[in-house]
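BUG: 3D viewer hangs when loading the predicted structure for this chain

Environment: internal workstation, default settings.
Expected: structure renders.
Actual: progress bar stalls at 90%.

Input used:
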Amino acid sequence: MMQSALESLWNRLERTSLVGVYFRYVRQHFRQLFRFVLVGGSIAAFNLLTFYFFKEILGLSDRMSINGMYVAAVVLHFFSHRHITFEARSGPIHGQGGRYVVMLIWNYLLYQFLVGIAPALHVSAYVAVVVAGLLTVVSNFLLMNHFIFRRSGSS
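Structure tokens produced before the viewer hung:
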């Protein structure tokens, strides 16, 4: 009974003009979104740990710690999403890799910008890293799903 009530509510929300398109998108891509959240959450934890390692243990500056974190995470991020989230292992890796680099550059600049302005805003570099990570979540999913790991015949 509870499941049918939730499904009924979801169906009504899908038919509304303002939010319906988003609810339909979530329904159509639910499995990928679920895997994206699991993989992304694991990588976010990895990012924080590697940032801590470079900053606190090795004593690097915030900007250099971001560099180390980013380099360490890139390979893990690409192959995890390629194989687990989007199941795109049969696609040509050189094309996917080239498109992925475009996304990486945007993400990298965003991280550097936010960590760079954090002191002026009296915010911890850790908070800036978390905010940058959250800001890239939606854009990364959309870019990876529809551009980087797109399937033949999809947009």
